[in-house]
Amino acid sequence: MTARIFLWVGHPRETSLSHGMADAYARGAQAHGAEIRRMHLSDMKFDPDLHEGYHARKTLEPCLEEWRENILWANHLCWAYPQWWGGMPAMMKGVIDRAYLPGFAMRYHDNDPWWDKLLTGRSGDILMTADGPAWFDQLAYGRPAKLQVENLVMKFAGVKPIRTLQVGTVKSAKPEKIQHWLKQAEARGASAAGRLAKA
């Protein structure tokens, strides 16, 4: 099976380490025959707010429609983003709030509290940067940003297995450390493409 990877950079700035991690991941995946579609949060123009909550649906902007089409096309997702205040950036969360909806990602049952997972059959990678090491994030806080996307977004809709590469401390990292992280991201891309090629 050819790996079809939707690579989404969830950093609101046009350049960042998240972009570099995504570049490295793409190199590794393409070297093993993967097809890649890529979107950058910084290019997406949309209203992130749910002014009526989930009581009224808003028409999706073209970039949100494209984002959903890319998820449906893919058999593997890779999201690269920074951890901010224990979660993802607000605009990234806005994409999920607006587009990752019942009827697309999941379907709730009428007569019980359960749901159907509509994105089953896809796997995922998370590339997350942080201003603290992963071991401290785990010890002090339980890694909330990792668990949010792994469990309450991807797995909630049936995406699995999921691997998370969390790197930090970014603000004090020397060039050789950053190069090490980029090599790790490239290896993750190669691994994903290789695994799907054998499926």
Q: Descriptors for this entry?
A:
alpha/beta, 5-stranded parallel sheet, two-stranded antiparallel sheet, 6 helices, 40% helix, 19% strand
Describe the structure.
- With 199 residues, the protein is an alpha/beta fold.
- The chain has six helices and seven strands; from the N terminus they run E-H-E-H-E-H-E-E-E-H-H-E-H.
- Strand 4 and strand 5 (115-117) form a beta hairpin.
- Helix 1 runs parallel beside helix 6 (175-198).
- The longest helix has 24 residues, at 175-198.
- The mean pLDDT is 96.
Number of helices: 6
Report the biggest beta sheet as strand number plus sense, adding barrel if it closes. Answer: 5 strands, parallel
Calculate the mean pLDDT score and round it.
96
Stretches with pLDDT under 50, minimum 5 residues: none
Sheet-strand content, in percent, reads 15-25%
- Radius of gyration based on Cα positions: 17 Å
Helix/strand order, N-terminal first: EHEHEHEEEHHEH
